[in-house]
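Crash report, auto-generated. Payload:
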Amino acid sequence: MKLSKRSISLFISLLLVSTVIAALFVPASASGEDSTEERVFTASWGTSSTADWGFPSPLTFYPRGPGYIMTSYCFDALVWPEESGDFTGLLAESWESSDDGLEWTFHLREGVTWHDGEPFTADDVVFTMDYIKGKASISPIGSSWYNTGVINSVEALDEHTVVITLNYPYAPFMQQVAAVIPIMPEHIWEDVEDPSKYMEDEAAIGTGPFILEDYDTDQQSYKYTANKDYFLGEPIIDTLIYVKTSDVVISLKTGEVDESGLTLDQVQALDESDNMEVISGPGYWVYRLRFNIPSNTILNDTTVRQAIYYSLNCSDIESRVLHGGGIEGNPGYVPPYSSWYNPDVTQYEYDIEKANQILDDAGYSETNSDGIRLDSEGNPLEFQLLYSSDQQSQRIAELVQTYLKEIGISITLKPGDTKTVDGLVGAGNFDLAIYSHGTSTDPARMLNSFPTSTGWNNSEFMALAEEQMSTMDEDERKELVDKMQVLIADNVPTIPLMYRNVYSATSKDTVTGFFYTDGGVGGGVPTEYNKLVFIYGTWNGDNDDTAEGTTENAASSIGILGSVAILACTFILIRRGNS
Amino acid sequence: MDRKRSGHIISRGLEYAITFFLILAINFFLPRVMPGGPLLSITGSQSADLPVVIDEEMKYKLMEYYHLNDPLHIQFIHYILDALHLDFGYSIFYNVPVVDILIGRLPWTILLMGTALVFSTIFGIIIGLESAWKRGEKLDHALLVIMPFFRSIPAFFLGAIMIFVFGYKTGWFPTSGAITPYMNYSGFSDYALDILSHLALPMLCLAAFEMPGTYLLVRNVCVQQLGKPYVLMAEARGLKDRTIKKHVLINSIVPVINQIAAMLGFMVAGTVFIETVFSYPGMGLLVYNSFIERDYPVLQGAFIFMSLVVLACNYAADIACSYIDGRTGQD
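Recovered output after restart:
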């Protein structure tokens, strides 16, 4: 009797609560209908720790690939790479260079306006180059991302013609300068003293295909609306949203996002019913073994490094760590999918005997009771291996340890977070380290930084590096770059263990036409977010945001109802026990 | 007695002030002894997408810009003076004043921690009292097993399971963030519902982590109280269970309040994991990202903010206890 009375009161209170909650969500589903026609595309940068890439303006974005891409939606460069890596004109319609490669003339597109309606002219180009050059010391982006150092002067011949004169012939000018520097409106920036702190709404006004509507650093989200007057044509979507997700695969499956970059493991977690289009591309992302050259006297010996190379089975490491989501390293460092790849370099096929032989010959034939080789002073060959404690690096480090044990070299694993590793390596406080990073696509950036990124100084290599940069003839340049790769393979300043591929999955009901640009965008960022996708791609009907919104609302209401019910039950249980 | 109490409150206040200063100092020195400076994150590092080449002159200018050139003690004095003005400098990563970021993030953490605290406290007390009342019985035994179990599951693991079950499999709750980005809200109730549905999972996760502590304490204190003569007396007088429980609870409340205040510190640590798992845009996630980027100003600002909150709550608990229990101030 008593109990049934309670049940009735529970029933009534649940009913009351659910009515209140139902009342809460009814207007929500009704309001969703306004947006039926809107083509909204939600993307995510995948599993990085942050989705905040800074304010998307030329001198305030966070200076890494994604930051530049977020900016490129609002701002156009003079030219832009297509899927093949060939350049198409954005703000420039055509261009030519003088024979010595010192003078580049750009004929600008007519009738282009900024997002605020002001006309775009040659003066804006002149202004931008001078401005970025002048402000380079204030903004780290200015000096590191835009190579204005090669520019001597910029001059407007008339309203639609600009001549850029270089200090010296610079082979990667188009890829590294013309296709990278975002042209900024003079009328907005002329009085801005400190561009690194200028984040007003106007700071995102460009000529690009998208107009920034919101940048939310707390929620780590971006919202862009289409620039209907874009000179290459109207974008295929109305709204572009970038969000942060806690689990990309789940967010793709639930439709919280329409597209995201993934790892191969994550791609494999998708199945056919998910209706996803998966594309993959060259990642230009290398995992390499770094040596402390020249400080470590043993590792400074080229033959020792060669022996280590022979002892590592790179294809095995790749399959155990990336499970086929990459390719094994190339001794010449340039990955095989690059147009600059030279296959004719010294190869280090996995060969333990050879490795042992080299070490014996180098004077490390004595071993201690553990089978570890001894140096001339009787100390065991024992090195610390530094690595950042992410899953891949951890696995690689363990494999390297196992392989080196085989040839009598003992390895102590020393994990740390990325910054700790960077810091220790920077201070020269290490023996060996596992590094993983993007490598760029142009040899000027990929290879010329070798002395700084490996500690290996070779005058012949440096001379070649200088020369290839100013060699305008493509074939001649290729020859020089080939020679550089031969030198790298012979001297083993670092061991490229493997290159990781990049993957992206897109819901087939939204946009198709994503691709990985040959040579990357923005000077070499390997990404599927080439903004041309949103012009030349296809919108596949609607992904019915209305329905999605309603389901989501209903779903969350059910969830809340459910939890209220659970709470109520717990409560009742306790109350029952009470009496 | 009142005088004694206010004396107690003042002396505790002084202790908290000293604690706060020590926290400020630790805050300053700790990130600086870690390897890997903040410049690495802007000038490129192994994790950057492109190798960024930076020359010495540029580096010097940047160092100067961020005042990294001054001797440590000068930096420290500047830091204390600025902190007193609530000026925590400019974030190296986010490129905006630290206070702006903190003010954007703090409400979310307070919402998350606050609701989790209320939730775990209410249920911890109810269940704890019930468990003590039924000590030795089946329910009590079951609870004594179940509760510590929740505590022993790592928060991020519990979070991942929750995301999978309640976010993906059933689709009841969104799996990340604090709001649905750029949703068109029809009104405030719609907005509130969106926030609540995003809050539910991380809140439950945090509460599940905190509740066992409260539960165990309440149970143990109440079990002690239940053996006392006044309870026997009350039972003998035939008072209702409910009335007896109320008295037991009031007599046990001081250690519970203290425990909750002390727990706040752990809760702050818990939010770092939970916010990271759920991508909840509060201080925890901010601290995590700033640590990865070695963003000193943000880290320091966040720690100071969080310390202030924890200290203030502890102080409030102290004062509350001195009012509830006259003996507190007399020691």
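Post-recovery validation: Chain B has two domains: 3-97, 104-310.
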